[in-house]
Amino acid sequence: MDVYLVPVGADRYELYCEVPDEPHTAADEQPPQGLIARLRHRFSEMLAEAERERRHGPSEHAQTGWMARTKAAGMRWVAESIAEQRLLWHMRRETDAHLYFPSDLSESTAQSTLRSQLGRDRDRHRFWLVLDSVAFVLSGLLMLLPGPNVLAYYFGFRLVGHFLSMRGARRGLEAVRWTSEGSAPLADLRHAIGLEPDQRVLRVADVANRLRLEHLTTFFERTVLTGGSF
User: So where are the chain's domains?
Assistant: First the structure.
């Protein structure tokens, strides 16, 4: 697994990676049993669908109509807005990872920054896991009302996401074997932060092309401008 320490501010960094599509679920596969298992299964299906939409556009079998278009737009938004969590979710299954860091940093500083970032991610997702678990339980009271319990689905989605993110960050700290090397393109990316928007996009696109990272430009723009959160 390749992980990139991306400079997004004067002294601020974010971890970034790009991963392949999730495999399709077999049509005849039995759904998992239990509430949490079903939530995780549905969560994985939604993310896989969102990722395919983001990479390849709507499938040739996609339905038309405003509801289908709204769903497709929502899936693309989900896929674009959770890049950090995508890294942590995939890290749950990794044993080895390679960190690319800006070449104007020392390796010890890069490794320290990596561990500090993973530690903050673990603690932050653990905090929100507790809050969303309580909200999910309370939203179950709405089951007494007719219609779909949208609030429960929302908090269920967040609950699973924070749980998987927390596990990924913890594994990155405790179990993953890290190697690392400096990257000149990432150092060049630092100089893009203070540029005007049009110039910044061009500079980041050049770096993304050199690193062969398809979605780095979108990630960088969103993270620099908003900080990104889930």
Answer: 2-226
